[in-house]
Amino acid sequence: MKLLQDTVRREGIVLNDQVLKVDAFLNHQIDPAFMLAVGKQFADLFAEEAITKVVTIESSGIAPAMMTAMQLQVPLLFARKHKSLTLTSDIYTETVYSYTKQVSNEITVSKKFLHPTDNVLIIDDFLANGEAAFGLARIVEQAEARVAGIGIVIEKSFQPGRQKLLDAGYRVESLVRIASLEKGQVTFVENNVM
Ligand code: G4P
Ligand code: NA
Ligand code: NA
């Protein structure tokens, strides 16, 4: 199925050699039928993993994570980017630096919702340097839960995130892998899942 590649080609806008704008179907306007297909694909890929919870970061991770959680019939938990009003003793916190946006975000998750028995699937919209995925993984590990894998909608394979996550021992499944955004063109890595 080449649905995601076709959607990226049709609706994606190459802003520069580093950044692909996907406001038409993923980061601003969301196509629910398309997102359902994304969720089914992740659920199939991780079907053997006995996932107990899907974890992402607000805001753009929530839509694909929600569809995945629905298919797997487990809860979706999203890390918040703003300090919550809850006592800090009740939350896990990690700092995530964005190279793309050149800002650091504190991400937080309530201790109530992650337990050592959890087997977690991390989902995110983009993988660039891997900072967001590592931040989420560190939060899961603070809770002494297990990271079963990381599911990414769009991987920019020319950036180092995938290799860093693989080197750290995580299973990474990206639905499309972009080899290059040079000359205003999207070039895919071969053998894309979607
Ligand atoms: P990393 O986590 O892999 O290191 O990525 P990075 O810091 O570079 O990404 C920071 C933010 O920028 C994330 O969104 C990520 O989804 C987004 N991003 C990275 N590369 C691209 C790209 O090529 N196109 C688009 N559209 N977004 C990209 P965020 O800050 O968490 O924002 P939100 O949209 O989830 O609210
Ligand atoms: Na994101
Ligand atoms: Na984003």
Report on this model:
This protein has 194 residues and is α/β, with parallel strands linked by helices. It has a single domain, classed as 3-Layer(aba) Sandwich (Rossmann fold). It has five helices and ten strands. The strands form three sheets. It has a six-stranded mixed beta sheet with strand order 4-3-7-8-9-10, sandwiched between helices. Strands 1-2 form a two-stranded antiparallel ribbon. Strand 5 and strand 6 form a beta hairpin. The termini are close together. Bound molecules: guanosine-5',3'-tetraphosphate and sodium ion (NA) (2 copies). The site of one sodium ion (NA) has 4 residues, from strand 7. One of its GO terms (cellular component) is cytoplasm. It catalyses: XMP + diphosphate = xanthine + 5-phospho-alpha-D-ribose 1-diphosphate.
What is the total domain count? Answer: 1
| Structure class | alpha/beta
State Rg: 16 Å
Q: Helix and strand string, N-terminal first?
A: HEEHEHEEEEHEHEE
Overall, the morphology is: globular
Distinct bound molecules = guanosine-5',3'-tetraphosphate, sodium ion
Mean pLDDT over the residues = 95
The helix fraction, in percent, is 25-40%
Low-confidence stretches: none
CATH class: Alpha Beta
Tell me the number of helical segments per DSSP (H or I, 4 or more residues long).
Answer: 5
**CATH topological fold name:** Rossmann fold
Q: Work out the number of β strands.
A: 10
* Biggest sheet: strand arrangement: 4-3-7-8-9-10
**Largest sheet, described in full?**
6 strands, mixed
How much of the sequence lies in strands comes to 25-35%
Distance between the termini: 5 Å
CATH architecture: 3-Layer(aba) Sandwich
